[in-house]
Every structure is written in C-alpha cells, then in structure tokens.
Amino acid sequence: MKKRILVVEDDRHMADLIQVRLKKEGYEVECVHDGLKALQVVERCLPDCMLLDWMLPKMEGIEVCRQVRYQHDFPIIMISGRTEELDIVLALELGATDYLTKPFGFRELLTRMRMHMKRFENERKCKEYVSKFSIGPFHIDLIAFKVYKNNLEIPLTQREFKVLLHLMQQPGDIQTREQIIEVLESSKGDRRTVDVIIRRLREKIEKQPSAPKWIKTKNGIGYYFHIDSKEVSYY
C-alpha cells in the first residue's frame, strides 16, 4: 500500500513540483493550499506524513501543526523560509517532527521523510506489545500518547510526551541534556530546547513548578524523574 503524503503549501507552483517528484517516488500525494483545508483533509484521510508550510492563508502552518499534533502522531515536517532560531524552536515545541528551511533540495526532503516515517513505523510496532504503564500517580497510554495524573489527563505536545516518557521509564537516572536531545529525534535541537520542555512539563505536572517534586535538576548535569519507588508497571 502506498504511503500517503499531505503537502500543505500556498505556493501552487512549489506544491505541484513536490507532488510530481513524490509521485515519481511511488507516494500517493494530496496538496492543499490553506490551513483550514489541511485540518479537514487530515481528518478525512489520515496521511503517513505531512509537509507543512508556515505561511498559509486562513490559518498559519504553526497553528495547524499544534492542532494536528494533539490528535495525531504521524511525522510533520515544517517547511519555511523563516530561519530564526526562535521560529525553529517554536515549531518543534508545538509538535513538528523536523524543520526544513527554504530553499531546500528534494533529495534532502525525501531522506528526512523516509527517516521519520520509518522511525514512526518502528515505534508503533514496539508499542503493539506494551500499551500502558504506570508509575506513582501517573498512568501513560503508549498507544494514544496520553498521560494521566490521578486519572486526569495532562495535555502534552509530542515532544513533551517523549521527554516525560523517557524520564519516567528510567526513574532516578540522571539524563543529560544531550541524551534528551537524542530522544527528541530531530535534526534541530539544543540545550535551551531541553530546558524549555522541562519548564513546560513542570508547569503541567507539578503543584509548585518552582519547587518540583517529580522532575528534578542535577546541577551541571541534567534532569531525572524522582519517585521513592522505582517500580514501573507495564500492562
């Protein structure tokens, strides 16, 4: 079965070029040219990967990314002429899997697509064997990518979920910022990105983010998930 690629690009000439090239590579491709239409197409025909421009009519790509990521976990590659570090970090924080700046080479785009789709498939296969686990008051659904604390869902972005899951699965073990960057599986990331994610996680799971109980800092090294019992229950 052919992989489905959704191209969201308001430059129709560029969208057509990408579509032609991807079809030659054996993909099924659909193009849309505004953000609202992109959301509709995602719900109608779930793609295997989305190529998403930032500057779009009706709804910017960054907002499309945010809304899609709360419901779906397929790869989203943001394609944009915006090259500022803060823009790149924002896109990744809101759920983009990768960020590619214009102009770009088609072979690079194709390689990144294949890499992320393959990784996504492997993750899904692994999670078929273990669907949930719990630690302390937290329950994690590995299929739906959801985290609950005392049975209340905590809304997380994909990147927040990955970092929290990584820390929870290794309670008490200090993870350096470099190790956490690897968990994010992105070509873009730095130490500051990790600190931003940790800060947002604390705001969502801690009663007092400034005095965290769960996500602790080891000065000069990194972060770890603190809990008296290291027992993790999988089911």
UniProtKB/TrEMBL annotation:
Residues 4-117 form the Response regulatory domain. The modification 4-aspartylphosphate is found at residue 53. Keywords: DNA-binding, Phosphoprotein, Transcription, Transcription regulation, Two-component regulatory system. Residues 130-227 form the OmpR/PhoB-type domain. Residues 130-227 bind DNA. Pfam families: Response_reg, Trans_reg_C. This is Response regulator. The lineage of its organism: Bacteria, Bacillati, Bacillota, Bacilli, Bacillales.
